[in-house]
Amino acid sequence: MTVIRNIAKDRVLQITAFLVVLSLFAARPKFSDISFDTLWSILGMMTVIQIFEYLHILDYFAYRLTSLAANSRQLVTMFLGLAIVAGMFLTNDVTVITLIPLYLEIAKKYELPEILPVTLIGMAANFGSAFTPFGNTHNIFLMSHYTIGIGQFFSWSIPLLIASIVLLAGFTFFIKKIKLPTVAFQDIHIQTRPTIITVIVALLIFAGVLKLLPSYVGAIAAILLASLYNREIMKKVDYAIVLTFAGFFVIVSVLQQMPWIVDFISGLVSTDHSVFLTSILTSQLISNVPSTVLIGKFTNYAAALFLGSNIGGLGSVVGSMCNLLVYKEYATWGNGHAGKFLLGFLAFNVIGLVVLGCMGWLILDFIY
């Protein structure tokens, strides 16, 4: 019942289900338009993420690194570094859910700034997740939809990561240095053998994304492993995102059968730069995941779509689902007014979107 309740209360899935029902009045979706490879890969990654959370991998590194910080700027820099790396492998959502409450706990104890550091942790999680093919769900979709090779993917993601780190580094100079005592290291231990086995299963899922193995192999392995460790893990898997993606495929399948929709969207994505800008702008309105699925069905400019959809995670609160989680975590754990945080969050994100958007335009022109 817990699983069904969590699925039913997911707002994005609710909206998607409503749109699916409406779309069925327009045309009948084609079964072949549903990418089951993508759905299996997402299910596998969502399961592995919960296994890693169960093993407290991120908690261990968070406490280990922050125990070394001498001042507030150093502390935030360590959090940002960890958020980037964690986002690469554990997704941006898990990263912010773990790191933001921890930072706010330390900030409350030592009276440290909150708005900019928390906003930057969210940005760093988004940037890290953009770097790997499985760091976020729309990257998994892009890999599957365009059959992108691993070398090709990293030739796109490395320049973006470098530009993102430059942006974060610039923001950190606005964080005042406040001397703080050593943060006590919590007694958290990594379970070596379960962690190694989980990494191997994650590699199976990655092999499925690259089409080296059937995508269901890694997903089934992850489900079996989670059930072996603790059956409660499977109750925490984000099934809603899998169902949401299935809904996206149905909606886009219907839209592809409506000539005026096809002509309109095709006109917006006729060049690589128009794809880049359209994906950024639509992400601000409907989030970068559905934006990627929608645009991806109408264009072959995969590199521009990758760049625009990941940069489009900045900006509005709905630019990325991770942004909503950042706000939710602050509203739950923050020591200030949530409304004031939201204004600061939006201001810093808009600045970041403009700066990184300009750098992205240059990357598209001179590197891709």
UniProtKB/TrEMBL annotation:
The record's subcellular location field reads: Membrane
Q: Which Pfam families match?
A: CitMHS
**Which superkingdom is the protein from?**
Bacteria
Do the record's keywords include Membrane? Answer: yes
Instruction: Enumerate the UniProt keywords alphabetically.
Output: Membrane, Transmembrane, Transmembrane helix, Transport
Kindly indicate whether the keyword Transmembrane belongs to this entry.
yes
Q: Principal localization?
A: membrane
InterPro entries annotated for this entry?
Cit_transptr-like_dom (IPR004680), Diverse_Ion_Transporter (IPR051475)
Its recorded name reads: SLC13 family permease
